[in-house]
Amino acid sequence: MRNLILAAMLSVGFLAPAFSADAAAAPAAATNANCACGKAVDAKAEAVTVTVEGKTHVIGVCGAECAKHVQADPKKAVAGVEAHNKKAEAAPAK
């Protein structure tokens, strides 16, 4: 009986973080496939979170240098990512 109670407590302990408020507040993963500069996003580089005109954007970057540029001029970076995404959507599927 004691083992059953311990197993139930451990199960609740592992599931609780999934339903916590902190999990909901965590920023979403970057959705852009290309950096603001046009290069492919490096999965190892940490995405940059910026706010432009009241909207929060998570921008994947190709490296630390582009992360600095995104933080320095977030409006330009968001515009660059949107432009690259539009080009990718307009390209015909192969």
What would you note in describing this structure?
- This protein has 94 residues and is mainly α.
- It has a domain at 27-90.
- 48% of the residues lie in helices and 11% in strands.
- The protein is built from four helices and two strands, in the order ααββαα.
- The chain has helices spanning 2-15, 21-25, 64-72, 74-90; strands at 48-52, 55-59.
- A two-stranded antiparallel sheet has the order 1-2.
- Helix 3 packs across helix 4 (74-90).
- The termini are far apart.
- Mean pLDDT is 77; it is low at 20-27.
- Rg from C-alpha positions? 20 Å
Please identify the structural class as seen in this structure. Answer: mainly alpha
Report the span from N to C terminus.
60 Å
Query: What does the average pLDDT come to?
Result: 77
Helical stretch tally: 4
**Sheet of most strands:** 2 strands, antiparallel
Total number of strands? 2
- What is the strand content? 5-15%
Give the overall shape: elongated
